[in-house]
Specification:
The protein is of the alpha+beta class. The chain is 35% helix and 28% strand. It has a five-stranded antiparallel β-sheet with strand order 1-2-3-5-4, with helices on one face. β4 and β5 (131-138) form a beta hairpin. The radius of gyration is 14 Å and the shape is globular. The protein starts with 11 loop residues before the first strand and ends with a strand.
């Protein structure tokens, strides 16, 4: 799944190179969610998922980028974001998606928690090839 960006607006690209960049990503997702008309609950879910994935991009991927924008498909409208890094990749995706498992010092809820918070979730990774996570939250 690649994010079906709206035809009239290209996604914005945000660098994730230091902890301060996480704030910019959250602010961008919040603005997009409001523009899209997501409910307050769905705004919060999308912002939380984006925050977790941006932190993973920085912490485990060594930094990367986020492409975020409005998306549309089948007369639906939503907010999409793609988190990409060129880090070590995830050697065992099934294990990484298990609640409570962590390769770092966190709670182990980042990937699995983000997946539960959004409507569409796709993870592409391979050892030595980095990671890309695409998420979408659709307006109701």
């Amino acid at each position: 799944m690649t994010a079906p960006w709206t035809a009239d607006e290209e996604p914005q690209v945000y660098a994730v190179e230091r902890s301060g960049d996480l704030v910019h990503v959250r602010q961008a997702i919040r603005a997009l969610a409001q523009r899209c008309g997501l409910s307050l609950v769905d705004q919060t879910k999308m912002i939380t998922a984006a925050s977790e994935l941006a932190r993973n991009t920085l912490t485990y991927g060594g930094g990367g980028t986020v492409r975020a924008g409005l998306v549309s498909a089948n007369s639906r409208r939503g907010v999409g974001a793609v988190f990409e890094d060129t880090g070590p990749g995830i050697p065992d995706v099934e294990q990484a998606m298990t609640d409570g498992w962590t390769s770092g010092g966190g709670l182990g809820l980042g990937l699995s928690g983000a997946k539960r918070l959004v409507d569409d979730f796709k993870l592409r990774t391979a050892p030595g090839e980095g990671t890309a996570v695409t998420i979408i939250k659709w307006a109701r």
